[in-house]
Write a structure and sequence with these properties.
Blueprint: H1 7-20, H2 22-47, E1 53-54, E2 60-64, E3 66-68, E4 74-76, E5 81-85, E6 90-91, E7 94-101, E8 107-115, E9 118-130, E10 138-142, E11 148-158, E12 163-170, H3 180-199, H4 211-236, E13 244-245, H5 257-266, H6 278-281, H7 289-293, E14 309-311, E15 314-316, H8 322-335, E16 337-338, H9 341-367, H10 373-386, H11 389-394, H12 398-422, H13 427-444, H14 450-467, H15 473-502, H16 528-540, E17 544-545, E18 552-553, H17 596-619, H18 624-648, H19 654-672, H20 681-685, H21 687-697
Antiparallel strand pairs: 1-12, 2-5, 3-4, 4-12, 5-11, 6-11, 7-10, 7-12, 8-9, 8-11, 13-16, 14-15, 17-18
Helix pairs in contact: 2-3, 4-9, 4-10, 5-8, 9-12, 10-18, 10-19, 12-13, 12-14, 12-18, 13-15, 14-17, 17-18
């Protein structure tokens, strides 16, 4: 496959551009460097002439969970420990703490001060984030006393294991500092805005025939992949991507659902090779969480049966076979071992990014008469982050692998489906149709409810094709056969698989899962209290915000509106990610009504997502992982809608700038959710990666 533009042409264009705009580019570079110098050294500026003061560790008082080591260091033994320093009587502008310990996780300490304005009580002053066993073993925060600082109290809210405090310094100047990563980020923003304003790049129309435009489009896809690979590298840093030897070296119960199912198949059985818990046999209702826990000293979720299906005295996995067939078995055939969670997630995330760009490009050809270049590139990136794909990769485990695989197969299905309609009659078209059928089957085998949204999105185009009079019936039948035959054959196999395990072709095992409640009592209800709860929790619920990295967090709590308990874990509403607001532009007159296929496809996709998410709400509860069932489809069609609207407004219109700003905010929020999600793997297990990104947002 040849590049859309040769390397020599790229170098020639670049040389000419640099020669003509050297002074302007130099100005932008100076602005970027100046901004970085200001941000990196602002705390040293704030210290002014205040002298540095090292707090004597020997003066520590009110030790709670803290002891003094042989060399005078303070040993912190657990979360909840605290230490006080009194009689300081010096002005303070910054506080720096130095620590040492084993590599572990991000530790957090709350800092409290007493000064001239609060002599008899402590006031909140900030948080210290550090990693005792790594490069971020010290941290510095702004600590501004009113007058003199009299006392200092550190409370260690988050500590995984013992560590030592070796120094505490007030008003320590770090000296000249320059963060290269932040400089590159600032330069990208400054150059992007500056060049777009100077040359009116926002108003340039994307031209399919221009090699440079194609290069920029796929270059943007590559930039998104760099983010995916960075997240994967962080996950690999603590072994989440390591291969798993097979036969398994640890007890089967210590592995995820996909590894357990693979192991069961290798042993010639459908049930997982787990020893049934003897307690379950005599329970009145084994699916009652409270009955399972009332006589046990071990947390229910630490039992080997947690979130597995229990049927006829045996454990089964209700997670689909899609990841096993497409990653686990091929990996085993090539290596003789099984892939780690991060590797599986990386495969699907990489595929999803490339497929999303390819699908957006395909649907642009089909539905959009024209688009502007910059919104096209920035908007597609916003769709990647707005779909919550980076969050799913950063949460790698078998729960999220199911959704990650579903996103990839959803995009593959839609791409092959719509590409088939653009292909001429013949073998190529039939191959694409068959591929679409197989992709839809793999989607069902990964996360069945996501397939509902996929079918809704594809249905209008298929129905209109069958109703059109220009295409001979024999061609329609051939297309349908190529699409439906693999789907039907795989569906029959799936039904047989379900019947062999649970005695019903349509039972996937979720009715028998051992989880937080007996879900057989969950049912679809259209009562006003359910509708109200759904609109808030799945559509409107905002993210919680704060001024500490990563600035946002998912909400947890209880749902009282239904009058009974519903599962509610880390969650947010769809509109918390602003790209989805653009779905509201669907009725606008700029979205042409003369293309019936487009209008019906957009409407059906939105309706399908509402149906899937409402089903998730009633049957499953409220959880950001459930929102990921629809976030890819809603981000995709929100992008298509707003790109058409944006292309039809006049050049330089203020609304165009707002749209770009919404794309930018979407990318930012999607990126921050990598660091603030349900299991927070980077915070807990990849502290150097977490704190390195936090450095970008530190002032000084």
């Amino acid at each position: 496959m040849s590049l859309p533009i040769s390397i020599s042409e790229i170098l020639s264009l670049l040389k000419s551009f640099l020669r003509k705009n050297f002074l302007f580019l130099a100005l932008l570079l100076c602005l970027s460097a100046g901004a970085e110098l200001l941000l990196a050294n602002t705390r040293d500026f704030s210290i002014g002439s205040q002298p540095s003061y090292e707090v004597p560790l020997s003066s520590a008082a009110a030790l709670d969970g803290v002891t003094v080591g042989e060399n005078g260091e303070l040993l912190v033994h657990s979360a909840g420990s605290s230490v006080e320093f009194t009689g300081l009587d010096v002005p303070s502008r910054t506080l720096t703490i130095y620590t040492s310990g084993n590599p572990g996780t991000v530790n957090i300490a709350s800092c409290y001060l007493s000064d001239d304005a609060s002599q008899y009580g402590y006031q909140d002053a900030g948080y210290l984030y550090f990693h005792p066993g790594g490069g971020h073993c010290y941290t510095r925060i702004r600590l501004r006393s009113n007058g003199d600082l009299h006392s200092l109290r550190l409370s260690f809210d988050r500590a995984k294991e013992d560590f030592a405090i070796t120094r505490i310094v007030l008003n320590e100047k770090r000296g000249f500092h320059f963060d290269k990563l932040r400089f590159l980020l600032l330069a990208g923003i400054v150059f992007g805005i500056g060049l777009a304003v100077r040359f009116g790049w926002r108003n340039i129309r994307f031209q399919e025939g221009r090699p440079l435009h194609r290069l920029l489009f796929w270059g943007t896809a590559l930039a998104n992949l760099c983010v995916i690979f960075w997240i994967a590298r962080a996950l690999y840093s603590f072994g989440l991507g390591d291969s798993i030897p097979y036969p398994l070296e640890q007890p089967v119960s210590s592995y995820g659902a996909y590894v357990q199912q693979f192991d069961a198949f290798q042993k010639g059985q459908l049930a997982l090779d787990l020893e049934p818990d003897a307690r379950l046999a005599w329970m009145e209702n084994v699916y009652d969480y409270t009955e399972r826990t009332k006589d046990s000293s071990v947390a229910d979720w630490d039992q080997p049966y947690w979130d597995r299906a229990y049927y006829d005295g045996q454990y089964y996995s209700y997670f689909g076979l899609g990841p096993l067939l497409t990653v686990y078995y091929p990996y085993y055939a090539l290596t003789g071992s099984l892939p780690g969670d991060a590797f599986v997630s990386l495969v699907y995330s990489t595929a999803a990014v490339l497929l999303l760009f390819a699908l957006v490009d395909e649907l642009r050809r089909r539905f959009l008469p024209q688009v502007r270049l910059v919104p096209y590139l920035l908007g597609t990136t916003a769709a990647v982050f707005g779909s919550l794909l980076p969050l799913m990769l950063a949460s790698s485990c078998f729960y999220y692998i199911a959704g990650n695989a579903a996103m990839a197969f959803l995009l593959l299905f839609l791409l092959l489906f719509f590409r088939a309609f653009r292909s001429p009659q013949g073998a190529g078209r039939r191959v694409l149709a068959a591929g679409a059928g197989i992709s839809l089957l793999l989607l069902v085998l990964s996360r069945p409810n996501v397939s509902v949204a996929a079918v809704f999105a594809a249905a209008p185009c298929a129905v209109l094709y069958l109703l059109e009079k220009d295409t001979p019936l024999r061609f329609k039948l051939k297309d349908m056969a190529c699409f439906l035959l693999p789907l039907a054959a795989g569906g029959a196999g799936l039904c047989a698989y379900n019947y062999a395990r649970f005695g019903s072709p349509l039972e996937f095992g979720t009715s028998y899962q051992l989880t937080v409640s007996d879900i057989t009592y969950n049912a679809v209800s259209f009562g006003p209290e359910y509708l109200l709860g759904y609109v808030y929790y799945y559509i409107l619920q905002p993210l919680a915000t704060e001024l500490v990295f990563p600035f946002i967090r998912l909400d947890t709590g209880s749902i009282f509106v239904t009058g009974n308990y519903m599962y509610h874990a880390a969650s947010m509403g769809l509109l918390a990610i602003p790209i989805h607001l653009f779905l509201g532009f669907y009725p606008h007159r700029y979205i042409h009504k003369d293309d019936r296929c487009k209008r019906f496809t957009y409407l059906a996709a939105i309706a399908g997502c509402l149906a899937v998410s409402y089903l998730d709400y009633c049957i499953g509860g409220v959880f950001v992982r459930y929102l990921c069932d629809i976030s890819m489809v809603t981000a995709l069609f929100a992008l298509l809608i707003i790109l058409e609207y944006e292309a039809r407004i006049r050049d330089g219109c203020f609304a165009g700038r707002v749209i770009l700003a919404v794309f930018a905010v979407t990318i930012f929020l999607g990126a921050m959710l990598v660091f603030s999600n349900e299991n927070c793997l980077l915070l807990n297990d990849a502290p150097e990666y977490y704190l390195r990104i936090m450095d970008i947002f530190r002032l000084g």
